[in-house]
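Give me structure tokens for this 438-residue protein.
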Amino acid sequence: MKTILPKGSKKLLNAWAFYDWANSVYNLTISSAVFPIFWGALTIVRNDQGAIVSDTVRFLGYDFNNDSLISYVTAIAFLTVSIISPLLSGIADYIGNKKNFLKFFCYLGALSCIGLYWFSLEHLWFGLLCYFFALIGFWASLVFYNSYLPDIAFPEQQDAISAKGYSLGYIGSVLLLIINLAMIFFYDSFGFENKGVPTRLSFVMVGVWWIGFSQYTYYYLPKGHQKDVLSKAVVFNGFKELKTIWNALKNDIRLRRYLSAFFVYSMAVQTIMLIATYFGIEELDWGDQDATTGLIISILLIQLVAVLGAFFTSKASSKFGNIQTLIVINFIWIGICIYAYTITTPYQFYITAAIVGLVMGGIQALSRSTYSKLLPKNAVDTASYFSFYDVSEKVGIVIGMFSYGIIAQMTGSVRYSILFLILFFVIGLILLFRVPKK
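Here you go.
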């Protein structure tokens, strides 16, 4: 019989953090690296000089800018997550089976990644459907994963273990990406005729990695707080819980103002992370350099630097405080957006990537742990609290991605979308300054 580990146990904390190692391969390979390049190669027509001739995709009888189409699908997927997550987290909290929901969305996302192997323009609907469900599986599973943090760690442990989770995620995802890139760039050594099959196999490997390594997390995580069996009254319990939490926020000015700030600045951060590679594909003059190689180098740079960023941010927050550290990071993001608007060369892109990596891991890890520490001390239904957190994040991404898609469709350039996102960081900063210190 398996021993139930106590809260704060090192083995329990490490098992929780290890899920980042398992699932972050989706974020790197599908969201950031291989799939965006694959999508660009599939949908962009270039002339002999490398200039873009067409980036229009025909879908459901309409012509879309390729960037706009993928951003709209992404936004709809996030909107779906924001609707279903309170429903599911409420059920999970009520009947005490958070782990089963975590598993379900893990398997949904992983199997959908495997389905991307058959992505083609001839069956675009199937490929976009797999992309859609892979995104839902990844982000919906995070609702339940994040909600475990206050259950398994004491407040003084949460910054460090949150940062450790992100660090494990960056290391694990980079490791698999290197394996995938070895297959893609040295395809002949692996017995492939071209880059096409190993590129598609990288999607399969993401799914297998995600399912396989998550088993260690599932073995040690508790099921949740057992309350009752599922009934009709429970189905909409999640929305009732969200309403309860919304009412509770009215009396918790510190948590309310922090959540408002997070909603706005996270809108910009997540959008930038999702569109960075598409920006590099279409807006930079790569000259004699191979664009794919250059983009991969920049993505690897982001991931490796992000490990240091998460670590140093954790240290800075313990010395200067969470809110003060987040304020500084938001200022840095504004500088990144201004500089990104002006860049045209790969070397400028590498510089931007290094700075993005430094603050990307930091702002994600610190935002999660700050919210966890600001929760009421007597909070039991942590899944519902983190559902509220995740719904805020997802609705923000929907707004950010639709804004990006509309501006890209109207102007034909991602640059103006990047510039527009500065507004979100400025508003986020103003709101962070309004968070009471006590």
